[in-house]
């Protein structure tokens, strides 16, 4: 049974399909691991034991009758603490929402439950999802699997930790500027950022509605595809036979994303590209000058909307917030309505330039994060280090959000060094097939 804790969600589902794994025994295995783990309180905000066992029992009955609803029917999954779940506190990592208990599930949790996944509980996150580091002194800071003295990546920090430490078969998170991909990269997981608007945000505590997206953190690209399916109430793409890389054209994005790379990340990225070339892929250097302008729009686009959504709640009790997060929200007060409208108009122009520049490529590649997980003690004591680490961590992933793309982070084989694969808007299926081929080449 201990092997179950490290298997992919897809393999667990196939085991259930074959009658080799029982959903109840599988769920109890995960619940026992959660109970026994010394860091559980830093990973899970709530463990929904009764719900998990009830859902597992129903999945076991369906399996026995040959009525399984999806390949992941009976597979245990964790949920970030911003997805509403009926009768369970959903506080988005903030004391501002202390005691907030919704009376119904978020739309995506309803979909996933109808497709048979088992809800293990809710995971810790950055406060109100407004940090790429996963450091949350107000609630809890989950551990990084490669360095427990370092930040885990955020804001879906607990989601990543739950999978990396064998306490969930997969985790569901959100990504507004990198919040699925950064913790995936730093914890050697696969993270999928979906296109804005593809997956319903009903019942999800917001940060920036124009950028908020939902996506899985998983052990394989196949798992990510299956989880995309259950979030939407579908089977998801079939990725068991990935396409060959021979003849595929990838852009090696040069500007912005390769500035100030940690030497270990730079080396891992070069090695990954070399392995793709050996598999027959064509790698072409690419610069998109408009990217600099787009990145410069980030402060007005993100902080204005975030502060606009949260201003009244924040200013009613600002003392409840971690000072760094509070300061970042309040930056949004510096910009006017005309500033915000003008920034969006400029961003749309940058998106058109991006689309033209990348039209001839199967995907665009970059390091997922330019920096390694930063030291937790220093984050707490050094303001400049915190701000610089947070902005740097979010820089490369933010390209996908600003350009309105879907994106993957894949492990390179070097700890905490992820490879980002940027796709076209609303082309998750094509991105996942490409990602599965890249995953095979990097294995």
Automatic annotation (TrEMBL):
Kindly provide the name given to this protein in its UniProt entry. Amidase
User: Which PROSITE patterns would you find in this protein's record?
Assistant: AMIDASES
Where do transmembrane segments lie in this chain?
none
Pfam families from the entry? Amidase
Q: List the SUPFAM superfamilies hit by this protein, alphabetically.
A: Amidase signature (AS) enzymes
Task: List the Gene3D superfamilies.
Answer: Amidase signature (AS) domain
* Superkingdom per UniProt: Bacteria
Q: Which PANTHER family match?
A: AMIDASE AMID-RELATED (PTHR11895:SF176), TRANSAMIDASE (PTHR11895)
